[in-house]
Every structure is written in C-alpha cells, then in structure tokens.
Design a protein that fits this description.
six-stranded parallel β-sheet; 5 helices
Length: 130
C-alpha cells in the first residue's frame, strides 16, 4: 500500500517567497503539497501533514500573528519542518516561532536574492526528511 505523504507550505505571500515555495513544491516527490498564505492558513491544516515549511521576507509580518500564537500552544514533535527566507535575520525569527512547537526543525534555507537552485533545494529537503 502506497500512502501519499502530505506537506504544507505557509508563506507571507510576497513574490520572492512565493517563488521559493513553488520551487519547493516542485521538488517534493511523493508528497501532496498544499500552499497557502498565513492569512488563509487554518490550524487544522498542520494536523494533517507529515512535513511543513514556513517562509517570509520580513520578521514578524502581521499576517503571522495567528501562526505565531498557534505554534506556541501546539505540540508538533512528530512533524518535520523547514523554514526559509531571503533574509538571515528573518530566519532567526522563523526558528524562534517554531521552537515551542517542538517540530523537528533543520537548518534554515537562505535565498538572499529570492532564488535557489533546484539541486540546493533537493539537498536541503533530503536533510529534512532524514
């Protein structure tokens, strides 16, 4: 029986971050991927996934208020997580909001110009799935 795994990508909706999210979605073989902006995100979306990604350009976007609150009150220890951004400072923020959820968080993905090679993404995702 081949059970399809599910992944969720939550973004701030900015052009660069959406572009990275699309590329992540494209390299996730064997996963059904749902992408949404933080504004359209529902907490129950996280419960149904094996893997989730969070990306934004700037730290503390107002659209992330609900996500921040939810991650501080939910235990996601059985789920793997990857965070990505175009700015190093924002990666620290993203790691911080995921910490309390106890999700299995790996090294963040930095894409300074909003672009990342598929080969780099595949290697990063392989590291997450270990």
């Amino acid at each position: 029986m081949n059970v399809n795994k599910r992944a969720l990508i939550i973004t701030d909706g900015t052009e660069a971050i959406q572009s990275i999210a699309q590329t992540i979605s494209g390299v996730l073989d064997g996963f059904t991927v749902k992408m949404c902006t933080a504004e359209k995100f529902a907490g129950t979306d996280l419960l149904a996934v094996d893997l989730f990604f969070i990306g934004c350009e700037k730290s503390c976007p107002s659209s992330f208020a609900y996500l921040e609150d939810l991650l501080s009150h939910i235990n996601l220890a059985s789920r793997k997580c990857g965070v990505f951004s175009t700015k190093e400072k924002t990666l620290k923020y993203l790691r911080g909001i995921v910490k309390d959820s106890e999700a299995d968080l790996t090294d963040p993905l930095s894409a300074p110009k909003g672009e990342v090679k598929k080969s780099v993404l595949k290697k990063w995702i392989k590291g997450i799935l270990k």
